[in-house]
Every structure is written in C-alpha cells, then in structure tokens.
Design a protein that fits this description.
The complex is a heterodimer of chains A (about 550) and B (about 400).
Chain A (H helix, E strand, L loop, with lengths): L2 E3 L5 E3 L37 H4 L4 H9 L2 H17 L18 H18 L9 H31 L6 H5 L3 E5 L4 H13 L3 E5 L2 E6 L6 H18 L6 E9 L3 E3 L7 E12 L9 H7 L4 E13 L11 E10 L4 E3 L2 E22 L9 E6 L6 E3 L5 E8 L2 E4 L2 E4 L8 E7 L7 E6 L2 E3 L7 E21 L2 H20 L3 E8 L2 E8 L3 H12 L8 E2 L3 H8 L4
Antiparallel strand pairs in A: 1-2, 3-23, 3-24, 4-5, 5-22, 6-21, 7-8, 8-9, 9-10, 11-12, 12-13, 12-21, 14-15, 15-18, 16-17, 18-19, 19-20, 22-23
Chain B lengths: L2 H28 L7 H28 L7 H23 L2 H18 L16 H31 L7 H28 L4 E7 L2 E7 L5 E2 L4 E2 L9 E2 L9 H26 L3 H5 L8 H35 L7 H22 L4 H25 L8
Parallel strand pairs in B: 3-5
Antiparallel strand pairs in B: 1-2, 1-4
Classes of the chains: A alpha+beta (about 550), B mainly alpha (about 400).
Bound molecules: protoporphyrin IX containing FE (HEM).
Protoporphyrin IX containing FE sits at the interface of chains A and B.
C-alpha cells in the first residue's frame, strides 16, 4: 500500500488529510475534509485517513462508502422516526379495545375508522412494529452503525495515538481558537503550563512545544454507545427465537392445581386464593375527592396467593406425578414471582366464576317440593350421568358454561362457567324414555309441559380465577448489558470533552491554539484562567459566525 | 393548615415569584451597561426562591399523599415546569445569560398553568402504578425534558435575533407561527382563569367505548362530546360535536378548551400586534441587541448534550424496567412509548446532523424547536388524539 511521508518524518496512510504526527495539511488531499479555501481546518476526525474517503472504486467500496455516510444514517433514523409515528395514528392490533365491534383487525379498522382505517389495515400498519420492513429498517440502521463506526474509529484512534506535542505552524494558525503574542518569556510560558496542569490537563513537551490535553477518552463515547446499540439490536433479534423467549398465559381457579404451560410439565401452580382490593374510606380522607370524581371503584391490589410445585424426578410415567412444594408466594401486580428462570405475573382475573352447582329433583305436582334426591355438578368437569338415591338417573345432554341466546339459538359465549345452563335428560327408574328439562339461572323450562319430574337449583358455590403470564426471557441480560453500555457511551461522550491547547514558540513569539470537540465556552474559560496576568493574549474565535450573520442576514 | 394546603400555596407562591423574576430579567435587557446589574441579581435570587417554594410544594405533596407526586397529569406537568426552572438555573450559572431567564421562566409558567387544567386531587395509585420505578421513571423524564426545553428557549432567542425582520419571508412567518403558539398557551391560562372566576359549569353525557360517562365542561361548549347529550339546562348549546377520530379520554372537552385557548390567544396576539404595529418577532428583536449568537447556539446544544442521556435513561431505560415489572414486557408499542422513541430518534438525528453535517446556528435552532414540538405533542397531542395505556397521563 502506498504511504505518504510528511516533512516531519512521519509516514501516514493513504488518504490522510492532516499529518497524524504534526498536523501539516497534506497537499492534494485537502478536498476530502473540505479544507480548501477555508481559513480553518476541519478537525472532526483529526484529518485521518478514512477508508470510505480513500477507496471508492470497487463494489464493496461503494457499499462501504454508502453505509459509512452519516447522511445516510440520519436518513435511516428519520425514516424510522416517521414510520414509528405512522403506527400511532390508530391503535395497533394488540390494543384493539375489548369492547370493540370486532377484535378481528380485518373488520375492526374499517368499521371503526372508515376508508382510512381500511387502508391502514391493508398497508399492514396495524402491526407496523412487527412488519418485515420495519425490522429491515432497524437492521439497516444497525449495519450503518457498525460500518460508520469502524470507518472512523480506527483511523481516529491512530491519529490521536501518533499525535506529537510539536505541531506544524500551519496547523496551529488554522485552529478555531488562536492567538499570537510577541516577546514572551520562558517564565510566563511555564506559568501557563502549570496553570493548565492544575486544571487537570496532561502536559507533553517536545523542544519547548507544549501540548496540554484532557478528556481524550470522551472521543470514544460515540463508539462505545454504538456498541451498546448493536447489542440491543442483536438482543431484539434473538428474542424472536422461541429458545430464548417464552410467553404463555394460564388461568388458574381458586383451589385448583394446574400445570404451568411452557415448562414441559415440570412445574405446577396451585391458586390458594385470589384477592381484589378496592380503595375505600379506610384509605384516608385525602383520596376522597379523587375517588368521588372517578365515580367508580378504584382497584388497590390484585393478588394471587400461589404455591409452586415441581415434579419429582422419579415420577413414574403415566401415574399421577409426585409433586414437591418449591415456593409459596403472593403474586401481585408490580411484584411478580420468580422461580428457576421463570417469572409469573399477575395479569388478569375473573371474579365469581361458578364452581359447583347442586340440583334437587321433585315431583312436578308436589307443592312442598319434597326432595327425591340431589346431585352436584362440578362445572369445570361435569360428569355424563348422575344416579340418584331413589333410582332416578340424570344425564347431561347439553352444557352451556356461559349461556346466551344468539338469534334464538342457545350457545355458550365463552368456555368459562359464568352463566351455566343445562339440558338434562331425566330417566325415571326402570324406564328408557327420558324427560327433557332445561335448567339455568332463573330458567327452568319443560318443553313438553308433561314432565313428571322437575329439577331446581338447590345451591351453588363460586370462586375467582387468576390470569397469570408465564415468562422466561434469556435475552433480558443482553438488553441490560446493551443499555448499560449505551448509557456509559453517551455519558462519556456528552459530559466530558476532549480539549487540547497547543503552545508553539516561534522565535521570541508564542502562538497559542486550542481545540475541543464540544463546549468551546468551557475551553475558553480554561485558557482565560491559565493566562491571567501573563502577557499572552487570549485566543480569538476565528470562526466567522458573526460574519456569516452579516453576510446572510437571515434573508431567504 | 394541612400539608396539602401548604403544598398548593407554595405552588402559587412559586408561580408569582417566577412572574416577578421575569420582570427583573426583562429590566436587565434594556440596561446599557455590560456589567451585571442589580436587577439581574434580584431576578436570579427570586427564581431560586421560587424554585425552593416549588420544591416545598413537591415534598409536602409527597408527604401528604404517600407517593412521589408524579402519578397523574397535573403532578407530572408541574414537575416538568419545575425541572425547566432548575435547568435554567443551572445553565444560568454556567453561562450567565439573563435573556435566557426572560424566555425560560414564562415558558415554565405556561407549562405550570397548563398543568392546572388537570384535576389536582390526590388520587390513589392503581396497582400498576404502585412501584418505585414509576417515580424514578417519571422524575427523570421530567428533568430531561425540562433541560431539553431550555434548548428550545435558546433556539428561539437565536431565531428572534437572527431572522431578518426588514421584510416578510418564509423565516419570519415560521417564527411568527411559533410565537403565536406560545400566545395560544397564554390564551389558555387567561381563559381558564376567567371561566374559573365566574365558575362556569356545563355537564354532558356521552358514550366512551361502551360506558355512559359524564363530563364537566368548565368553559362554554363550542364543541360538544362525540354523540353527547347536554345535562345542564341553561348552558350554551354546542355548535358542533367532536369528531369520532379523537380517541383520547374526554377528547371533546379538551378539544373545546383548545378552541377557547386558540381564540383567546389570537385576541391577545392581535392586540399586541396592534400596539407594536409590527410582527411580534420584529418587536422582540431589539431586546436581543446584546445577545451573542454563538453563545446562545452553544447553550442550545449544551442543553441537548445534557438532556439526551438523561432522556434515554428516564424515558426509555427506566420506563422499560418499570414496564417489565408491572406489565411483564419492557416494551409494548403503546403510543406514548412510541412517541418517547420518536423523541429519542429525533434528538439522535439532531446530534448527528450537528456533529457531522455542521448544522450549527440557525439550522440547529430550528431543529431545537421541532424537538420541543415533539415533546409537547407527546404531552398534549397524544392525550387528545390517541388512545393508550398511559391514560393516567
Ligand atoms: C438510533 C440510532 C443512533 C443513536 C442513538 C446514536 C447515538 C449517537 C450519539 C449520542 C453520538 C454522539 C453525538 C455527540 O457526541 O454529539 C453519536 C455519534 C456518532 N454517530 Fe451515532 N447513533 C445512532 C445511529 C448512527 C448511525 C446509523 C450512524 C451511521 C451512519 C451513526 C454514526 C455516528 C457517528 C459517525 C458519530 C460521530 C462520531 C464522531 O464524530 O465523533 N450513528 N451517535
């Protein structure tokens, strides 16, 4: 590879704009950083040789150049921004309200929002953040991030490592902060040097030339934060795989024990009790107004008192598994239960579901309704038939756990016993022809009006049901690491700055120049402090911002 | 006096102090002297005392309610205004720029006045909000957007000085629109106070989803709730109904308030223009004589440099931690969450443009205004237009 040798003796890589060691502009490369016809040098990457600016002919070069452009990066970010905003115009699929006309997105959007809603659905915006193109957009940002960072980090690192205290005069004169002072004594220079040291600048010297530098590590901030972002993007990708991420939901009734889905039958949960608490007077005078305004009950706590069991290793296949208690806990909102890598969250509930229902049989014409026998139906696991004491046999013909009439047809709204209703067949002793009877809450219908026996609800019991989400997420640590690295990187890059001051003796005179990657105000204060009561002139800001104002004057 | 009474008195006190302090900052602008004058000292002292008063509001309210007072819209927006004042105080001591106070304090007051639109009763926390992470998340967010707002204030100052007012241009028009928007917020405060004073009230009933709900208008209804019926007999009849696509809670009432604010703002704006006989931007420009554009630009950028990491921490990371604990997922694409992400994307783009494309000065100033607009949209617009989980907010 060709190299460029500077007059100071340092050998620079091809494409270098400012010599890594002395900063002298390298002829023929000044267009790269736009230094031509400019008073000031572009110091953003120290004039180091970046691949994207040096090699531009092959196909790979072109791809590299494309993705290493910050302009492209910003466009990607802006496109992601606009796309994200589009997704908030109407609710996303998962936020279609429970009371909506239909929870089927194909129906919901058009029915609720008309033609625009239909279009929204057809364009796939109802699941925008899960769409392939949104993923690709994020992936492109990731690619851009990596290439962009590599393109700059390596040469920048080289340049900052190779820099020397002694700089070329042109470099000094073409810094934004610059001053020249005539007839300066050694003592005064030493004074300034010591004062800079006191302000925690690191001093290096070379033949009377001084470089005072601090906060160089802040230059790595952007690269560190980009690494954090990459880790987060990778974590998001991994989360799509079922290996590392489990998401299940389980309903458990009070008093019931059930296997926890997603655990390969290894763990069981028992719901001892579900508790719903509401705010009331006992919670203090202070909430009175707010509660009154709300007008409805405000929940205070949702809680499941649960026992977690684990299957014993030696359980025999097919037999009832032997279980051992591993944890007993209260699962509340904001207080999930963790065990062996799984997490259970209090996510939903159903109050007052029917548990059992008892029925009584009597003669239809018996005004005393004397019992001929009773039976109890377990509403989650009803038996097919029930034999009564006096030889009566009751068979369940139809069971509607959550009964409703839909256009004259009986059906069950859900599979949960919230409003149970039955069609019973009653076989009198020694008979084969049954009587038909329909019984539900507040209903007792004899379709033939000739029934000899009548069934009535004698008793029932109720219980609550807890809805719990089951999660296992091995990508979480990765997200946490990514976020932490990102934060370290941004803070490193934002709350510290890389400041340098060069003192350049020239005969009896002294040239003073300074550079920082941000916060010029702070740098100027440092210098002011360092040069007080010395002859040395305060640096001037050579960036002609005020000039520009005069030139353009804000005319459009 | 109960703690809660002390608390609200302190909030009033802070508001009044900020108002007076603004006057003193205004006085520093006119003075010819370069030296720091007495009015500047009084201005910053009053600001600090005002901030302490607001801190007392915060602490006493915390003690009274038993949870960090950032759990509903009133508390959150008030905290936002407070954070803005804090950010101003910090940046004042770094840069000593008084004109910043002249603009930052009124914007903070506008924000606090806006907070008062929401019910200020102490509300009990529903289970999902019963987490320390809520307080940590919301406080950090308030702090970060308070700081980011100072970027907007500095950007605005930059533009008022920079934009050529000698004849009308696209720039002057946009600047005027921005200033007019501030008038709308002032209009909101004025009209709220007026109708509050005459104790106006009109009740409506409407269907929210599947529930019949009642809503109380505190301003005459120009726009009624969607499919609503009036319950108060002799109240003004709405001229029209809120469109169905406004999905937020109580959208009709909020939209009505917006219209009233707009009208009042317009009246005040027109009056000011009549008196000044020129664009508001042009009238303000002479106040900026002493302003150093470079310094203002630097402040605007510095505010983003400080605010961006804080926003990432509070608005995204802490939010995610809380969501993970409360809702079993750290990210759920809820509109408010998405808009936090948009804000974050925007400021990331801002930083990259500034760093690599050299968008300093004017361009950067316009961007800082767009950034603030996004923040305000998340505060005002999302609640009005979009339905979501953060319905407390
Ligand atoms: C959402 C995604 C991104 C975020 C949050 C982000 C964040 C940041 C931050 C905070 C900085 C430091 C800015 C400063 O110090 O003022 C930075 C710098 C930088 N970013 Fe990004 N970035 C993102 C995407 C990208 C992409 C896609 C590219 C590639 C085109 C890129 C390239 C750069 C470069 C080149 C720097 C400046 C390094 C320097 O000049 O010292 N970033 N980024």
């Amino acid at each position: 590879m060709e190299k460029i040798k500077c007059e100071c003796g340092h050998v620079n890589p091809l494409g270098t704009v400012l010599c890594e060691a002395c900063g002298k502009p390298i002829e023929g490369n000044q267009h790269i950083d736009g230094n031509e016809n400019k008073k000031l040098l572009n110091m953003r990457y120290e004039g180091s040789a970046r691949r994207s600016k040096t090699y531009t002919s092959s196909f790979i070069d072109k791809i590299w150049t494309f993705f290493s452009s910050v302009k492209v990066g910003v466009w990607l970010i802006v496109i992601a921004l606009i796309a994200s905003a589009l997704g908030t115009i109407y609710p996303q699929e998962q936020y279609i309200p429970a009371e909506a006309i239909s929870r089927d997105p194909a129906v919901f959007y058009e029915a609720t929002y008309g033609t625009t809603g239909k279009l929204y659905y057809q364009l796939g915006f109802h699941d925008l953040y899960g769409s392939w193109w949104y993923m690709i957009l994020l992936a492109l940002i990731g690619v851009s991030l990596v290439i962009c960072s590599l393109d700059r980090f390596i040469p920048l690192y080289r340049a900052l490592k190779k820099q020397r205290a002694k700089r070329h005069e042109t470099f000094i004169r073409r810094q934004r902060y610059f001053s020249e002072t005539e007839q300066v004594s050694e003592d005064e220079i030493t004074k300034v040097k010591n004062r800079l040291r006191k302000q925690r600048y690191k001093i290096s010297e070379e033949n009377g030339h001084i470089l005072a530098e601090k906060g160089r590590f802040s230059r790595w901030g952007p690269y560190v934060n980009h690494i954090g972002l990459i880790i987060i993007l990778i974590a998001a990708l991994l989360r799509q795989t079922p290996l590392l991420f489990l998401d299940e939901y389980v309903w458990v009734r009070e008093g019931q024990q059930t296997v926890i889905p997603g655990t390969k039958g290894e763990y069981y949960i028992e719901n001892k009790e579900f508790i719903l608490e509401i705010y009331d007077e006992s919670d203090g005078e202070i909430y009175k107004d707010a509660l009154e305004m709300q007008g409805e009950a405000v929940a205070k706590n949702y809680q499941t008192n649960a026992i977690i069991y684990k299957k014993k290793e030696e359980s025999v296949v097919g037999a009832e598994p032997e279980l051992e208690v591993i944890k007993e806990a209260e699962i509340k909102m904001n207080n999930p239960l963790k065990f062996d890598g799984y997490t259970l969250y209090q996510a939903g509930y159903q109050l007052d579901e029917f548990d059992t229902m008892s029925f009584k049989v009597h003669q239809t014409d018996d005004t005393d309704k004397e019992s001929l026998g009773t039976f109890t139906v377990d509403l989650t696991k009803p038996d097919q038939t029930y034999e009564l004491d006096n030889g009566l046999r009751v068979q369940i013909d139809q069971y509607y756990p959550d009964y409703e009439l839909d256009k004259g047809e009986p059906r069950s709204k859900t599979k949960f016993p919230r409003n149970p209703a039955f069609v019973f067949l009653i076989y009198p002793p020694e008979e084969n022809k049954p009587e038909v009877s329909f019984v539900g809450i507040g209903r007792n219908i004899d379709p033939t009006n000739e029934n000899q026996y009548k069934l009535g609800i004698a008793d029932f019991s109720m219980r609550d049901v807890s809805g719990l989400t089951v999660r296992k997420d091995y990508t979480l640590p990765l997200f946490i690491i990514g976020a932490a690295i990102f934060m370290i990187g941004v803070i490193q890059g934002m709350y510290w700055q890389h400041r340098r001051v060069w003192i350049h003796p020239k005969g009896k005179n002294v040239l003073l120049a300074a550079h920082t990657n941000k916060n010029w105000h702070g740098l100027k204060q440092n210098i002011e402090k360092a040069i007080t009561d010395t002859k040395i002139n305060l640096v001037e800001d050579q960036q002609e911002l005020e000039e520009e104002v005069k030139k353009k004057g804000g005319k459009s | 006096m109960s703690l809660l009474e002390i608390s609200s008195t302190m909030l009033y006190t802070a508001f009044i102090l900020y108002l007076i302090a603004t006057g003193f900052f205004g006085a520093t602008i006119k003075s010819k002297k370069q030296k720091r004058g007495i009015s500047e000292k009084i201005g910053i002292t009053l600001t600090i005392i005002g901030f302490i008063a607001q801190l007392v509001y915060f602490i006493t309210r915390w003690m009274a309610s038993g949870h960090a007072p950032v759990s509903n819209m009133f508390e959150f927006v008030t905290a936002f205004g407070m954070a803005m004042v804090l950010a101003f105080i910090i940046l004042y001591f770094i840069y000593r720029l008084t004109v910043l106070g002249l603009f930052a304090l009124p914007v903070a007051m506008i924000v606090i006045a806006y907070a008062s639109m929401f019910p200020s009763d102490v509300a009990p926390l529903v289970p999902s909000l019963q987490s320390n992470w809520l307080g940590i998340h919301v406080t950090t967010v308030a702090l970060s957007i308070g700081i980011l707002s100072i970027s907007f204030v500095a950007g605005l100052i930059y533009l008022i000085k920079f934009v050529d007012q000698s004849n009308r241009s696209k720039r002057t028009t946009w600047l005027e629109i921005i200033l007019f928007t501030l008038f709308v917020f002032i209009g909101f405060s004025v009209i709220s106070v007026i109708f509050n004073f005459i104790d106006y009230e009109a009740k409506f009933q409407y269907i929210d989803g599947t529930n019949e709900v009642e809503t109380v208008y505190e301003m005459p209804a120009i726009v009624g709730p969607h499919d609503g019926t009036a319950l108060t007999e002799d109240a003004m009849k709405p001229w029209f109904e809120a469109p169905g696509w406004m999905l937020g809670k109580d959208a009709g009432r909020k939209f009505n308030t917006l219209i009233w604010s707009f009208i009042t703002g317009l009246v005040i704006y027109l009056l000011c223009r009549l008196i000044a006989r020129k664009r508001i931007g042009a009238a303000l420009q002479p106040l900026m004589k002493k302003v150093n554009l470079d310094l203002v630009d630097e402040i605007s950028y510095r505010a983003v440099a400080i605010g961006f990491p804080l926003f990432t921490l509070g608005g995204l990371i802490f939010a995610a931690i809380w969501a993970q604990i409360a809702w079993d997922r750290f990210w759920g694409w809820d509109p408010k969450e998405v808009w936090a992400l948009i804000t974050w994307f925007f400021y990331a783009a801002f930083l990259h443009l500034r760093l690599s494309r050299g968008w300093h000065g004017e361009k950067s100033a316009w961007l800082s205004i767009v950034g603030f607009a996004i923040i305000m949209f998340n505060l005002v617009g999302v609640n009005l237009l979009l339905a979501g989980l953060h319905s407390y907010a």
